[in-house]
Amino acid sequence: MRLTPTPAQTVGPFFGYALPYAGGEALVDRSHPGAVRLHGTVYDGDGVPVPDALLEIWQPDEHGGISQQPGSLHRDGYTFTGWGRAAVDGVGHYSFTTVEPGSTGDGVAPYFLVTVFARGLMDRLFTRAYLPADPSTLEQDRLLSSVPADRRQTLIATREPDGSLGFDIHFQGAQETVFLTYPNTPQFTGPVE
């Protein structure tokens, strides 16, 4: 007997219903002295904004420390947990209020780890948004320097005139974002309460 393949289940489009929560995009309050906005737009392979994606970021604090604080889903206004979740709006735009991450060690340029969930994806996608820095700092980063030179810019945020960090994500096409693979990663990881 010959079996016919059936479509696999994708990771969306239920994000607006089940996963966003109040304050998920605010890792720190806007009044925090080191607050910065990380924002951008998620685009599909045709360059059209994706209206129902969800992003998560993980990051160290401004000194490069990795938070061990519980309570990621219950923002209290002062505990930095290093994790946030934001849904895009109807035109594919997302925004986080956070602090600029510090380097976690020698030869590691500061970055945000970004995870993207969207309809049509068989699994979430991982990428990094590096802080814009002098080229020598970025060249020393082991992961970034392993990416072909003509593709590295897709992993580097841009500093905007207002001081915010812009980071667009492109699923495919000429500006396709470099996505990362982590062996032995379970299907879903998130904060444990």
Structural account:
The structure is a single chain. With 193 residues, the chain is mainly beta. 8% of the residues lie in helices and 23% in strands. It has 3 helices and 9 strands; from the N terminus they run αββββββααβββ. The strands form 2 sheets. Strands 1, 4, 7, 8 and 9 form a 5-stranded mixed beta sheet that branches. The chain has a 4-stranded antiparallel beta sheet with strand order 3-2-5-6, with no helix packed on it. The protein is globular and about 65 Å long. Residues 14-103 form the Intradiol ring-cleavage dioxygenases domain.
The low-confidence runs, each spanning 5 or more residues with pLDDT under 50, are: 188-193
CATH structural architecture: Sandwich
What is the ordering of alpha helices and beta strands? HEEEEEEHHEEE
Q: What do we call the CATH homologous superfamily?
A: Aromatic compound dioxygenase
Largest sheet: 5 strands, mixed
Q: Give the % helix.
A: under 10%
The overall average pLDDT, rounded, is 87
Number of strands: 9
CATH topology: Protocatechuate 3,4-Dioxygenase, subunit A
Number of domains: 1
Q: How far is the N terminus from the C terminus?
A: 47 Å
* Continuous helix count: 3
Structural class: mainly beta
* Share in β-strands: 15-25%
EC number: 1.13.11.3
Protein name: Protocatechuate 3,4-dioxygenase alpha subunit
GO molecular function: ferric iron binding; protocatechuate 3,4-dioxygenase activity
Pfam families: Dioxygenase_C (PF00775)
